[in-house]
Design goal:
With about 290 residues, the protein is of the alpha/beta class. Helices cover about 30% and strands about 20% of the residues. The protein has nine helices and eleven strands.
Length: about 290
């Protein structure tokens, strides 16, 4: 979120009352075009307000102000790189088009576990966005389906009014990222809306990956339903990573505990770091959790 201040008033004898001018509206539209997610951020000027009410914290992680059609390169694990992924990111179509830190946390963990952990497994990533976690899993030997909805929630204003974005940008970005990393033989892109029947060509997964899927409250029951229907008791492992943001998170876990139990992954060597870094202080990323049906 960017604070836009009124220009210094001219020394009129009788200054007019401030009104929203067409120029201000045009400025807002221009800024939105440059940085479509700016209303979801908090900046230093808003930090005290954000701390006072945890429901007002930034939904979008700190990244460059404008992310439009860029390509970044990420390596995992950070300490001894095993996998390197080129990732196209584009914020112009909504939140899913950027690299979320929870995806990096989960990617780092599965890379830490190594090739032997994923080799030959059928793996599904839910809410893939750019496809980062699934791409890492594919590079480590898994047979992976990266999935997301064709119509993504898109925030219109600081009032957090959401609509459906009338295109399928995330599926396009995911496909480009699969090709960019030469993973077409092991990573497939599929449309999958939570709460609906999974695509028929996706077999029962041995591993489900979900990173930063807890942010849009109306989707909470659909995500729980999808996890429950896809998981085969006793044979499907679920790795789940999220950022603690709002009181609403508790509602999700209240729903989740009716179907699953869970425990924080104990063998992640960086689990303490995620809680101690200053930029995670008020809204810490949780180390990966393992869900059991």
């Amino acid at each position: 979120m960017m604070a836009i201040t009124q220009p210094t008033s001219l020394p009129f004898d009788n200054p007019p009352e401030p009104v929203v001018s067409l120029n201000e509206i045009a400025l807002d539209e221009a800024l939105d075009a440059l940085d479509p997610l700016r209303h979801l951020r908090t900046d230093s000027d808003a930090s005290d307000f954000a701390r006072a009410d945890e429901d007002t914290v930034a939904i979008v992680p700190l990244q460059p102000r404008s992310i439009l059609g860029e390509t970044i390169r990420l390596t995992f694990p950070v300490d001894f790189p095993l996998v390197s992924i080129s990732l196209k990111v584009d914020a112009s179509h909504g939140c899913g088009g950027i690299a979320w830190p929870a995806g990096e946390v989960l990617s780092n963990y599965i890379a830490f576990r190594g090739i032997g952990y994923l080799q030959g497994k059928n793996i599904v990533e839910l809410g893939s966005g750019t496809g980062l976690v699934g791409l890492v899993a594919g590079a480590l030997g898994g047979t992976v389906w990266i999935t997301d909805q064709a119509f993504v929630p898109y925030c219109l204003s600081p009032l957090f009014k959401w609509i459906n974005n009338p295109s399928s940008p995330l599926l396009d970005i995911m496909q480009q990222n699969v090709t960019l990393n030469n993973l077409q033989s092991c990573v497939s892109v599929r449309e999958f809306n939570w709460g609906e029947t999974p695509p028929s060509d996706i077999p029962p997964p041995e591993l489900i990956l979900a990173a930063d899927c807890v942010y849009f409250e109306p989707a909470f029951p659909l995500l729980v339903q999808t996890l429950s229907e896809m998981a085969v008791s006793g044979s499907t492992e679920i790795l789940f990573c999220y950022k603690k943001r709002r009181k609403a998170d508790k509602r999700f876990f209240t729903m989740l505990k009716k179907k699953f139990s869970w425990a924080e992954v104990e063998d992640d060597p960086n689990r303490g770091i995620y809680k101690s870094r200053s930029h995670f202080a008020s809204n810490s990323y949780k180390a990966a959790m393992r869900l059991v049906k």
